[in-house]
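Q: How would the structure tokens look for this protein?
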Amino acid sequence: MDKYTLRRQLKAARNAMRPTERRHAARASLRLALRHGLLLRAQRIGFYLPQGGEFDVHPLLNQALCMQRDCYLPILPRRGRVMRFGRVGRDTRMSPNRYGIPEPLDAKPLRARQLDLLLMPLVGFDLQGHRLGMGGGYYDATLAFMQHRRLWRKPRLVGVAYECQRVEALPHEPWDMPLDAVLTERRLHRFNSSPR
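A: Here is the predicted structure in token form.
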């Protein structure tokens, strides 16, 4: 199945979830993340603000802030597709980007390579660690530097999704960075496709 068709089907499945199911899933994913120590092994963690039915990571973000982790949100570039990450806290001033997504006003945003863990939204995933995004290419461009590293690579890449977004196999390109794991409301899927 082509990416366009997959995106349409997986978005429909995700959007069909009721608000109570979404809230339950967000709480369940937090419990799983704590059980697996996902937030313990990282000091600088990249998050995202959910848009258009994406998995709500607010409980994870709030927990990380309570654990005194340094939390960051993506900042879109004026030109190109390589994002930076601005630090966020309870009193951070935000400004909407060109898509209307709030971004932190941070004078010195980080590059992705400075993060320990990056939680990423997705439309679909498979059990080989492939991720289907929205198709804008922002995460691909931002993480392109990881293609050239052989041994030590950070950040650790963890997708966050509903279990209904899992498929048997996804079409993928040579430049796609495999995920280390995907956190859903049911489990933390770990992948062996990457040497990290």
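The longest helix spans residues 19-35.

Helices lie at 3-15, 19-35, 58-66, 138-142.

Upvote if useful.
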